[in-house]
Amino acid sequence: MTDPRTTVVVITHNRRPELLRTLGHLARLPEKPRVIVTDNGSTDGTAEAVARHHPGMRLLRPGRNLGAVGRNLAVREVRTPYVAFCDDDSWWSPGSLAGAADLLDRHPALGTVTARIIVEPDGTEDPIVRELRDSPLPRPSWLPGPALGSFLAAATVLRTDAFRTAGGFHPRLWLGGEEELLAADLAADGWWLTYAEALTVHHQASTARDPTLRRRHGIRNTLWFTWLRRPAGPALRRTLNLARTVPRDTVSLLAFAEAAAALPWVLRERRVLPHEVESRLRLLEPSQRGSTARRYTG
Description:
Blueprint: E1 6-12, H1 16-27, E2 34-39, H2 46-53, E3 58-60, H3 69-75, E4 82-87, E5 90-92, H4 96-106, E6 110-119, E7 124-125, H5 128-133, E8 156-159, H6 160-166, H7 179-188, E9 192-203, H8 211-229, H9 232-245, H10 250-261, H11 263-269, H12 275-288
Parallel strand pairs: 1-2, 1-4, 2-3, 6-9
Antiparallel strand pairs: 4-8, 5-9, 6-7, 6-8
Helix pairs in contact: 1-2, 8-9, 8-10
């Protein structure tokens, strides 16, 4: 069942055991995808382990931690029409990459396909799946699943050319809800995003993470996206709502301060979304108030 349509891109930083587990799963996929690993400056022997255990996989070593931009670096080398992102603690189920490619083949206006996420080792469904399945956005009749306003990088297959045209992940956002800005830019370019129930990604969260830093970046990135792309009224409302709802602690204060300090470049790069895309974002706002995705911000 070898399928040459999709390349898998993995970014990693100091998670050698988790990465090797993920690469083992990817190596056993019947689709036999090409895999590109960006080692974001690991100091735990990650790169050497990948070269030793998976010599057929492409290994990029930028020498520093690029965050999500490590994906951009890898996509430069992608020659397939589709690219699947994967974190070092997640992996695709057999057949799911081919299934996503089939959907993208059949629907030329479809830009991204996001899979169902199963949390390991318990095999339970990630709570965010319900939000994807029950998305309130209206959709065209041809769309094969619920329309989404954003996507989760570790569970999504994208059209490679669409990713490149939209500019990939913004270099300033690093990690933490970095998908929201790219998703909006894809929609502004005319692409639709969907959830596909029949496709599966497994996620066994690494214990080697800093949730405090992730939350700080999540709040900051939410603010930056809001100021970069939303009209003045909605941007102000979302900013005030975020200020009211995030935990009142040092992490939130630092996030707001860092976001505010960046206003000069944010205003230089500000580009308001088309009306139809902004309308979809407004429809999502009520459901986002209690969203599981607020693990990035709340």
